[in-house]
Design goal:
two-stranded antiparallel sheet, alpha+beta, 17% strand
Length: 416
């Protein structure tokens, strides 16, 4: 008999024992579902991360009070980090003079309540004071007007640049925000620019920004103290010059700030230097853990499924001993018997794999529908699911198949 005939008979045998076949393949189904769903979601996570980081300054170095790891201060508690000296405008000016630096922009922000302008309102906006060049370090693109300039900073001009969300929600459709006045926290600003839409970054909106000169900001707002300074204190966004590796600029900035802050060679930094690489490293740790979890769950499920297949095939051999003896008596050789039972084991695992693929795709699609994470299903994940299930069927089907093929035909016919 050819392979297709063997496979067809194996499927027919499964249909005859539906409940037993389903329970046998359940482990395979769970394992393959896990593989397909998690791979699709992890690939979607990779694409999301690449897209989110592309919206940030790709080479920007963020100088802050702390070094981030998974969004939290690294190695130290909030209280200890909060006691560190604040970064200053003088630090930013000194960093800007480094030969490897193109721009060093002091930045500080303040979360606002709902802003209103007549009948219009915008929720959860952020007022951000910035220095010259923040559009470069933050990868902002002006769609109308201009960004904050050195002239605005010197004269503490009451001007602002709006994110697209703020412009769309505080002004009537078709109403150009440029050169109009906007009241923010009791102060009136002239709108001089509107930014292109950027979208959310890791779940946080970016288009709700209102940028003003940092000197104007410090005229009306004081620097946060205590724990609030950890996340909302003054930071410096540093952009290396074209052709300068980030690592070189990073080393120069670190050496300069250590000198300015009077740190001795044996003392740790009392400031944080954060780059995309450091943030990606933290995210990669999470992804590695997720991959290990996937491998563990899928491996255990496939092992359990394989043991189930071997067990049920051994039962099948016992139930069909007389059939095996008769087939051998009329001319079937050991290979024919081995192929018959091995094909049944592969059929069981393959059907379980097919069901697992469908359920895995459905699970990934469901997660994509209810969360911002969009699943990506590479073609090789389907091949991987089919391959895993087939290999499990072969490995765990060999022993029962060999046992069946090795039966003595005379003893098998006499078996009751």
């Amino acid at each position: 008999m050819n392979f297709l005939t063997l496979f067809a008979r194996a499927v027919a045998s499964m249909r005859y024992n539906k409940t037993r076949s389903f329970l046998t393949t359940l482990g395979i189904i769970i394992g393959v579902t896990t593989i397909i769903a998690i791979v699709a979601l992890l690939k979607g996570l990779d694409r999301t991360i690449d897209r989110e980081f592309s919206s940030l300054g790709t080479k920007t170095i963020y100088v802050q009070k702390m070094e981030f790891q998974l969004g939290l201060p690294r190695h130290r508690g909030f209280d200890e980090v909060a006691k560190r000296a604040d970064l200053t405008l003088g630090d930013a000016a000194a960093v800007a003079q480094l030969p490897t630096v193109r721009a060093a922009v002091p930045t500080i922000n303040n979360e606002l309540d709902t802003l209103t302008r007549g009948v219009y309102e915008a929720d959860e906006c952020s007022l951000t004071g910035v220095g010259e060049g923040a559009d470069l370090t933050g990868n902002w693109v002006v769609s109308e007007g201009r960004f904050i300039t050195a002239y605005d900073l010197r004269h503490r001009n009451m001007v602002c640049v709006l994110g697209s969300y703020v412009a769309d929600n505080l002004f009537a459709p078709g109403d150009n925000p440029l050169n109009q006045m906007l009241d923010v926290d009791g102060h009136r600003y002239l709108v001089v620019g509107v930014l292109e839409e950027k979208g959310a970054s890791f779940g946080h909106p970016q288009d709700n920004q209102i940028f003003i000169p940092i000197d104007t900001y410090l005229k009306y707002y004081s620097l946060p103290k205590g724990r609030a300074s950890v996340f909302h204190g003054l930071r410096i966004e540093v952009l290396p010059k074209e052709g300068v590796p980030v690592e070189s600029a990073l080393a120069n900035v670190e050496e300069l700030l250590r000198r300015r802050r009077g740190l001795r060679y044996y003392e740790d930094n009392d400031f944080g230097l954060n780059t995309q690489e450091s943030m990606l490293s933290s995210l990669n740790n999470i992804r590695s853990i997720l991959w290990l979890v996937m491998v563990g769950v899928a491996g255990i499920s496939l092992l359990v499924g394989g043991i189930g297949i071997m067990n049920i095939m051994l039962v099948s051999v016992a139930e069909r001993t007389r059939e095996i003896g008769i087939r051998k008596a009329v001319g079937a050789n050991e290979f024919d018997i081995l192929a018959q039972f091995l094909s049944e084991a592969v059929a069981l695992s393959s059907v379980g794999g097919a069901v697992g693929i469908v359920l895995g795709l459905a699970a990934a699609a469901f997660v994509s529908a209810i969360t911002p994470l969009k699943a990506v299903v590479p073609w090789w994940t389907v091949v991987l699911g089919v391959g895993f299930s087939a290999v499990v069927g072969i490995i765990f089907g060999i022993y029962p198949a060999r046992k069946a093929s090795g039966l003595n035909p005379i003893e098998a016919i006499r078996y009751e």
